[in-house]
Amino acid sequence: MTAINAVTDLSMDGDIAVITLNSPPVNALSQAVREGLEASFKQTLADPKVKGVVLICEGKTFVAGADIREFGKPRKPPSTKDFYKLLDASTKPVVAAIHGTALGGGLELSMMCHYRVAVPSARCGLPEVNIGILPGGGGTQALPRIVGVERALEMMTTGRHVPAKEAHELGIFDALAPEGQLRAFAVDFTRKLIAENKPIKRVRDLNDKIDEARKHPEVFDKFRKANARRLRNMTAPENIIKCVEAAVALPFDDGLKRETELSQELHSGPQAPAMRHSFFAEREAAKIPDVPDTTEVLPVNSVGIIGAGTMGGGIAMNFANVGIPVKIIETKKEALERGLSVIRKNYERTAQRGGLTMDEVEKRMKLISGSLELGDLKDVDLIIEAIFERMDVKKDVFAKLDAVAKPGAILATNTSGLNIDEIASATKRPESVIGLHFFSPANVMKLLEVVRADHTSKAIINTSMKLAKKIGKVAALVGVCPGFVGNRILRQRQVEAQNLVLEGAMPWDVDRVLYNFGFPMGPFAMSDLAGLDIGWVKENSKGETLRDVLCEMDRRGQKTGAGYYDYDENRNAKPSPVTEKIIKDFMAKKGVNGRHISDEEILERCLYPMINEGVQILADRKAIRSSDIDVIWQYGYGFPHYRGGIMYYGDQIGPAKVLAKMKEFQAQMGDRFKPSPLLEKIVAEGKRFADI
Ligand code: 3H9
Q1: Is 221 within 8 Å of 244 (Cβ atoms)?
Q2: DSSP letters along 470-498, please?
Q3: CA 104–ligand 1 middle distance (angstroms)
Q4: Taking the CB of residue 422, how many other CB atoms lie within 10 A of it?
């Protein structure tokens, strides 16, 4: 074995050269890796003793892409596109041997090689769109030549990780190797290519899939139209589509040039840095300063859930999905059966859409059992309480759990805002109590707020953060306060949305502004979807708020066919004259003369109080860093990723402007706009929210 540089080795297996990259954690294409690759390709391709080359990686993965940490800085040569020239000129076969993930620049590098073999557990994809850029290492020109235009557009605009079996069927991987035998398989594969005199397969020469699209140029506009809603406001997908148009219309090298231009456009725009921030924010959120990675992780091999309602059922699915058995406890047989049947229906719906086989549905359902006895949770490692939000009832449940659960079991509550210290006080083991706040629908939403109470042990915090990753969630650690971090900030927006409506804006005006900003829906559409009657009690309703009046009229949202909006039979929303009249009556009663409210004012009044609350949350030490708040709002509330998160957005506007506007609104409308003292302080010190 010869070391080419610190991250690249070269060894010979007979007449096959094996280039091995070893650059933890993910073998990203840092400058050192690019230099190592260039030197080893040059050396092996020029060496007459070498008949073929295998490129393989050490560690947990093949190359997972360009080194994102180098973005935004001047890039030094060689670039990955330089490898095209080397490999295209080669008369010896070069085979990429893939395990883990071949992503972005990693997959591009492998597509420059002449063949690709992979183990069945490998995945591949071009996920650049998720960081606001495009596959700029030739991927937009190479992939359509292998998988066809439509599939390439789908892969590159979703950034999906394609499993090995599918990649093999699509022709991305030429062969699948037995698990654990990748190197030997790849060397044999290369030897066989040579023995059988197989031609060198250069992606630039593949034309049949491109020819197909030349006959159907309408495919691009069809794709744009079909995906308009999903891709709205984002700049990267449109540039990706343009690159693929170039792949179809231009010779390969001209297509590469066009790709570089369109890639540079994205790198210098605002969305790429925002999405890069999101990428690192998500990974940073997993790090807890006083809970090092070396902290004990408790085994979680079984889970108990109290409550078979929508939340309990959704939470249960997360664990069954990763093979952890779950026992759901209910007080009544009918409620338990109803809950289990909803879970089954959810799985079956996924199966109908092709997301699961019926075998997998049955396997997962077998992992979920029900019981009416709390005592049946005596052996489980983690218990999550998911019943309705009443402190007295939760305390009662936790006192009972204390008597039943085994020593060391994690006792979690899914409360969305109650005081977890008080809940923990019902037990004799507050160190075992933690909040695991899932978001609805719990089997879909990616966010998990892990809520640290006063006495929660570090082992339980570490275990919860690791467990979140295992079940596919993005976790952020927050402190106990009403609404925790996400809902505490949401409250600001909800209050202001209501105020705007009582001053002259209509619900659909507020919704339109926030939708256009990039949220999946506005606050009123969201209330209609969730149900206006959540937390509404008929007996106590006195028609004092807009919501009271709507609920009293049985306009309780989408489920009743009307709420803030009117709905047709397909649940399409229409502005409602009924709601408009109620609002106008309210305003008349209060003597308010409605005025036109600009879109700018709507946006500022909804968003700036949220940013201000975020600052106060940091002052109260209820979130560790401002980027954790970004993660929470992106994954729990649909804040657009391409804007980097609510606090990052605040930094782009500038803390000084946020403060000035808050003061202006405070003077006009009162102390609900009172700036946080910390906001005043960071503006005085010329700092950013990210510095807090
Ligand atoms: C690209 O390729 C552009 C090209 O088209 C242009 C021409 C070449 N760079 O996620 P994890 C770090 S754009 C730098 O917790 P997992 C990450 O920050 C790129 N660092 O592990 C973390 O560091 P730390 C296209 C990276 O096992 C550590 O690795 N590729 C990169 O859950 C572990 O990460 C992508 O977008 C990187 N590319 O998941 C793939 N990737 O420990 C992005 C990771 O200090 N990466 N790190 O916090 C991923 O999707 C996941 O990291 C992966 C592993 C699935 C690979």
Answers
A1: no
A2: HTTPEEEEEE-STTTTHHHHHHHHHHHHH
A3: 9
A4: 14
Tokens of 385: 């309480």
Q: Ligand 1 center to residue 64 CA distance, Å?
A: 6
Indicate which atom in ligand 1 lies nearest the CA of residue 159: 36
Q: Which three-class secondary structure state does DSSP give residue 124?
A: strand
Instruction: Note whether 190 and 95 are within 8 A (CB).
Output: yes
Residue from 108, 150, 330, 385 carrying the catalytic annotation? 108
Angle at which helix 507-517 crosses helix 523-530, to 10 degrees, equals 100
Q: Structure pTM? A: 0.93
Question: What are the start-end ranges of the H helices in 148-181?
Answer: 149-158, 164-170
State the Cα–Cα distance between residues 147 and 144, nearest whole angstrom. Answer: 5
Phi, psi of 485 (to 5 degrees): -90, -50
Element (H, E) at 327: strand 326-329
pLDDT in tens, 227-277: 999 999 999 999 999 999 999 999 999 999 999 999 999 999 999 999 999
Q: Coil, strand, or helix at residue 50?
A: coil
Phi, psi of 383 (to 5 degrees): -120, 130
Residue 128 designated active-site: yes
Which of 68, 79, 140 has most ligand 1 atoms within 8 Å of its beta carbon, as the pocket-test mutant?
68
Mutate to test the pocket of ligand 1, among 26, 76, 80, 266 (most ligand atoms within 8 A of CB): 26
Where is 305: in which H helix or E strand?
Answer: strand 303-306
Angle between helices 599-619 and 646-653 (to 10 degrees): 110
Per-residue model confidence as pLDDT tens digits over 454-494: 999 999 999 999 999 999 999 999 999 999 999 999 999 99
Indicate which atom in ligand 1 lies nearest the CA of residue 469. Answer: 32
Q: How far, in Å, is the centroid of ligand 1 from the Cα of 265?
A: 22
Cα 325 to chain center, whole Å? 25
Alpha-carbon span 8 to 37, nearest angstrom: 7
Chain CA centroid to CA 340, Å: 28
Retrieve residue 491's tokens.
């409250």
Quote the ligand 1 centre to 8 CA distance (angstroms).
19
